[in-house]
């Protein structure tokens, strides 16, 4: 294709760079290191690494480095780029070359999302401002062409209108589809330019993988998993710890021997590029990402590579294999042949191979990629032919989780579930060979959506297979432990939505419909809940899971009063209406927070204890499953727990509640063992990436073209930005809650070297009581002052002083000052010099702040929190109480900075500590810790160092009353519990991402013990009024729904359209809100009335 420029420079020796005249003589080269030539140096370093002439490999000859020599045309392209790098911006300009200035300008355009018109206007203004002879480009087209010398681009491949074939390879020159006969072009007559029906944009993978090794800034990280990371037995912190990774290494030892061989993940999903729900349009990007990288870079935006952009307006559906053909062919080459790649960190070439470990997608896309239909009786791909499904009225439900219990378990014989004894065993786990044996029985699948392509009814021996996936062409695919991932994000969202809809009896959301009650009658179970019929009406008894009107209002008020820490979640209180009876615009992440944090707390005060206990255990299950660090032993326990939890839910909720998404939860712990922590395998990051692609759409008549062009420019400048200094990039951008750098000078005490970034404050005299208390706390918590504290205490002991602790605290500061002054006159040691500012004491005046940032966490004083929708004043500190280490919970009431001589400072929090004495001050129930916020203690010891505090937040306890709050602990999103080699270090400019979902760092030891006792469930609620339905209207409604339902169900078994539990909004939007600071469109929004 003439519009595609292949990426060709991956560190090879450039013939043009071998000529010294091309880069100037030694005297001219000295200018590169002058401070005023920083921009020259940045581009110079980048070109050196691209051309393979860096200082690290100057002595390596092109004949021995293992890479092929460049062709003459390729060398000319690079020579052109070199000339641009040496061309002055204007005559006499030493600070910028033409290339360095244009790169920074273009970086600003992309980074700040400038329009092309505004960029052109800026260029015009700069041309007028700069001296005559300037070399600025005329418009945004010129710098784009300049950067194409680096080889970034894509290939446009025409496709059949009905997704039958690609006009590629053997069909490249065909003018009509060889399968359906449809013309390739939209316009066949006249002199106008022929326009193809569909165009696939293909972004070649090899060059993009080679680019990871081209730069020293990323090449070392690509070996992190092997050379830096320390594996710990039975602990999962990264995909390298997973069974899938380790089994793959055992099966393909030649691949594992080279740590630079790349393990990839593949993801895809559809989204509407217009953000207009009235427009039915769905395009599907295919995204790849390397897992070799450390956690803070792995699965992040700069290292995601779009490989395909499948055009709309219709989703490819089960014909997606047609569009995957170029990618799969390239993946086969990368596996078998590899590609010569230059490693900038070692200065040598090696043969790089790559393999896809698994795919990541939502459940409908799971069907597209795997070839297994995710609908019908065998919708679960893991259970395969042993699915536990059954037909109810116009619906298929997935009950029968007693199959996963031990054969001797008492619940297998109980009639409380479906009225039957459960004798079936747990479904068998299939190997890759087992799957291939099933696929060998399939008839040949013919792709395409043309009307002549008649859909064939599946035979029973074909099970739920629609076709054999194209991924099985990869030689290693059948040996993979985990080929396709179940998406935890969507499973959480759908389960929580079903729970809320059923608890609150929301119209069109509840699973407790009239037909669900008829299902109970058909199954002859739970007679208390059957519809009761008389001459003129039907009565629907209230079930144990239905909330009363009062409970619904209390639930709404509970959500209204919830406040989260800065950036933890969106403001869910805004989703509650003013009267407290409606929820609106809930996002996927809102459901994540509701299910794991809020619903278990809100349900504690619910009338039926069996219902609340089961839902608390379910929320705790997902909270533990989503930890950043997992343990195999705990996952095995979770696998047992989720079976018990689902069995409990089967005794509570109607069969219609158990759609396929509820059932899939039973497989999540096993997949975590196979694939590692969920944050490397869920859709949050993918949907945020889709949101970014949506912002590239400038020409709505050509959305795919706009996205492709915007993406390659952003991709190129992402690579450039690793080399740019003195300008903000996505690699050096300071986090919103960055606290600055710590003072690590040798002559400064550690207590003075802690970094705290306070907000704007004011000088104020500190009350004497607070001043003495704060000064004592600083002295008592300074490690270097410990010997002097002990010496003073011993002196008091020798003097037989009464109330030693009180006297020690009262007089130590004055004694310490005199001691250090005396020692400083006698000796000049470094220790005394460091202690001198501390001994002289702080200024009686200090600064008082309304808030500050410590260790990347934002803290506010209580009075500031009261005026905001976020909660940042709650803290927890470890301390001694009656010779026992406990957690002290409190709230910050003041932030004080003490100033010492020589510019030393200490920031302290003044807190109110909640009284934690049992019964009256603190109560523990399961894993909930409730605190009475009206009772305080330790008022004489209210200060703590800002750096000692950890943030918590408090949520109203609906069970214990208005004065009680439940403590919620959490970890900052930038904390990674990773063990590394002693000689390894993290670069100071590591990428910081702010789109992480808040997760617990590790699975806590105080795990909830899921009870397995037989539950004496009272199915009917006497304190909630039953619902009365008009008899004639109800019978007509049931008859209509029954007929439509059965027709829908029959077609549902064969049709691959989107199923009911995935909303149209979710499928079309395809984005998500991670925290309240994210921009762009969001995904599914639900209006819930209750």
Automatic annotation (TrEMBL):
Coiled coil: none annotated. InterPro entries: DUF4216, DUF4218, Transposase_21. Residues 625-737 form the DUF4218 domain. Residues 1069-1090 are annotated as: Disordered. Residues 1080-1090 have a biased composition (Acidic residues). Residues 896-967 form the DUF4216 domain. Residues 1069-1079 have a biased composition (Basic and acidic residues). PANTHER family: OS08G0208400 PROTEIN (PTHR10775), TNP2, PARTIAL (PTHR10775:SF177). This is Uncharacterized protein. It comes from Solanum verrucosum.
């Amino acid at each position: 294709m003439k519009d595609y420029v292949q990426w060709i420079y991956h560190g090879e020796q450039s013939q043009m760079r071998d000529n010294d005249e091309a880069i100037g003589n030694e005297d001219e080269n000295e200018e590169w290191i002058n401070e005023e030539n920083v921009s020259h140096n940045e581009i110079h370093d980048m070109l050196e690494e691209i051309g393979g002439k860096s200082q690290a490999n100057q002595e390596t000859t092109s004949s021995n480095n293992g890479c092929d020599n460049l062709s003459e045309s390729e060398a000319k392209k690079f020579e052109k780029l070199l000339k641009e790098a040496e061309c002055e911006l204007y005559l006499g300009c030493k600070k910028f070359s033409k290339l360095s200035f244009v790169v920074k300008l273009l970086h600003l355009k992309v980074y700040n999302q400038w329009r092309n018109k505004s960029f052109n206007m800026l260029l015009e203004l700069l041309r007028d401002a700069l001296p005559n002879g300037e070399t600025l480009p005329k418009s945004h087209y010129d710098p784009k062409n300049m950067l194409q010398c680096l080889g970034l681009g894509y290939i446009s491949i025409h496709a059949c209108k009905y997704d039958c074939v690609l006009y590629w390879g053997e069909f490249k020159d065909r003018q009509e589809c060889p399968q359906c006969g449809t013309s390739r072009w939209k316009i066949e007559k006249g002199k106008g330019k022929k326009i193809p029906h569909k165009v696939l944009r293909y972004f070649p993978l090899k060059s993009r993988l080679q680019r990871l090794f081209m730069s020293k800034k990323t090449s070392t990280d690509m070996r992190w998993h092997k050379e830096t990371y320390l594996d710990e037995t039975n602990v999962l912190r990264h995909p390298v710890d997973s069974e899938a990774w380790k089994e793959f290494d055992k099966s393909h030892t030649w691949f594992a021997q080279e740590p630079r061989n790349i393990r990839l993940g593949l993801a895809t999903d559809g989204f509407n590029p217009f953000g207009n729900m009235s427009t039915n349009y769905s395009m599907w990007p295919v995204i790849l990402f390397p897992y070799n990288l450390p956690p803070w870079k792995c699965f992040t935006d700069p290292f995601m590579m779009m490989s395909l952009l499948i055009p709309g307006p219709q989703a490819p559906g089960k014909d997606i294999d047609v569009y995957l053909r170029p990618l799969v062919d390239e993946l086969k080459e990368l596996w078998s042949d590899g590609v010569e790649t230059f490693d900038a960190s070692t200065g040598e070439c090696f043969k790089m191979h790559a393999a896809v470990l698994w795919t990541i997608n939502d459940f409908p896309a799971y069907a597209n990629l795997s070839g297994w239909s995710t609908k019908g009786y065998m919708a679960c791909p893991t259970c395969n032919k042993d699915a536990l499904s059954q037909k109810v009225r116009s619906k298929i439900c997935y009950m029968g989780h007693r199959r996963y219990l031990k054969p001797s378990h008492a619940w297998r014989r109980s009639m409380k579930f479906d009225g039957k004894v459960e004798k079936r065993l747990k479904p068998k786990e299939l190997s890759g060979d087992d799957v291939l044996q099933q696929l060998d029985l399939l008839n040949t699948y013919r792709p395409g959506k043309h009307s002549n392509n008649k859909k064939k009814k599946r035979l029973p021996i074909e099970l739920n297979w629609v076709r054999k996936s194209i991924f099985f062409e990869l030689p290693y695919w059948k040996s993979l432990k985990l080929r396709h991932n179940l998406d935890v994000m969507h499973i959480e969202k759908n389960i929580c939505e079903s729970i809320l809809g059923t608890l609150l009896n929301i119209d069109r959301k509840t699973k407790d419909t009239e037909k669900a009650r008829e299902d109970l009658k058909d199954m002859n179970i739970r007679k208390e809940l059957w519809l009761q019929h008389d001459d003129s009406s039907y009565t629907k008894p209230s079930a144990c899971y239905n909330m009363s009107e009062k409970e619904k209002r209390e639930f709404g008020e509970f959500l209204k009063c919830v406040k989260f820490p800065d950036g933890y979640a969106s403001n869910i209180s805004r989703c509650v209406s003013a009267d407290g009876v409606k929820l609106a615009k809930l996002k996927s992440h809102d459901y994540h927070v509701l299910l794991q944090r809020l619903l278990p707390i809100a349900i504690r005060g619910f009338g039926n204890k069996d219902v609340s206990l089961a839902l608390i255990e379910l929320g705790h299950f997902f909270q533990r499953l989503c930890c950043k660090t997992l343990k195999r032993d705990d996952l095995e326990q979770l696998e047992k727990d989720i079976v018990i939890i689902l069995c409990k839910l089967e005794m509570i909720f109607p069969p219609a509640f158990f759609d396929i998404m509820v059932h899939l939860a039973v497989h999540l712990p096993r997949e975590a063992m196979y694939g590692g922590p969920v944050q490397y395998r869920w859709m949050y990051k993918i949907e945020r990436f889709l949101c970014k692609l949506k912002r590239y759409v400038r020409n709505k008549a050509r959305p795919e073209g706009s996205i492709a062009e915007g993406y390659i420019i952003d991709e190129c400048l992402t690579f450039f930005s690793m080399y740019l200094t003195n300008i903000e990039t996505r690699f050096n951008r300071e986090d919103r809650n960055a606290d600055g750098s710590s003072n690590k000078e040798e002559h400064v005490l550690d207590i003075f070297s802690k970094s705290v970034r306070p907000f704007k404050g004011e000088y104020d005299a500190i009350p004497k009581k607070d001043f003495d208390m704060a000064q004592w706390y600083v002295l008592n918590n300074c490690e270097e002052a410990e010997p002097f504290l002990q010496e003073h205490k011993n002196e008091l002991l020798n003097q037989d002083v009464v109330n030693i602790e009180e006297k020690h605290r009262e007089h130590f500061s004055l004694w310490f000052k005199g001691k250090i002054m005396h020692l400083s006159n006698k000796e000049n040691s470094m220790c005394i010099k460091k202690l001198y500012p501390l001994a002289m004491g702080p200024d009686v005046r200090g600064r008082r702040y309304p808030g500050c940032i410590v260790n990347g966490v934002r803290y506010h004083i209580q009075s500031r929190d009261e005026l905001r929708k976020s909660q940042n004043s709650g803290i927890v500190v470890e301390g001694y109480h009656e010779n026992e280490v406990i957690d002290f919970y409190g709230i910050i009431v003041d932030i004080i900075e003490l100033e010492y001589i020589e510019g030393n400072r200490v920031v302290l929090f003044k807190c109110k500590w909640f009284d934690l004495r049992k019964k009256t001050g603190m109560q523990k129930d399961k894993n909930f810790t409730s605190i009475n916020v009206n009772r305080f203690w330790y008022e004489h010891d209210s200060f703590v160092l800002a750096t000692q505090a950890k943030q918590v937040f408090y949520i109203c306890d609906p069970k214990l009353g208005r004065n009680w709050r439940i403590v919620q602990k959490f970890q900052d999103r930038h904390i990674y519990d990773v063990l590394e080699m002693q000689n390894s270090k993290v670069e100071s400019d590591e990428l910081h991402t702010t789109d992480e979902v808040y997760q617990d760092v590790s699975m806590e030891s105080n795990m909830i013990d899921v009870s397995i006792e037989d539950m004496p469930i009272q199915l009917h609620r006497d304190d909630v009024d039953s619902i009365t339905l008009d008899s004639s209207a109800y019978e007509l409604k049931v008859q209509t729904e029954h007929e439509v339902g059965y027709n829908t169900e029959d077609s549902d078994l064969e049709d691959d359209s989107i199923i009911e539990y995935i909303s149209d909004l979710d499928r079309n939007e395809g984005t998500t809100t991670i925290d309240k600071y994210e921009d762009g469109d969001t995904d599914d929004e639900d209006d819930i009335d209750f």
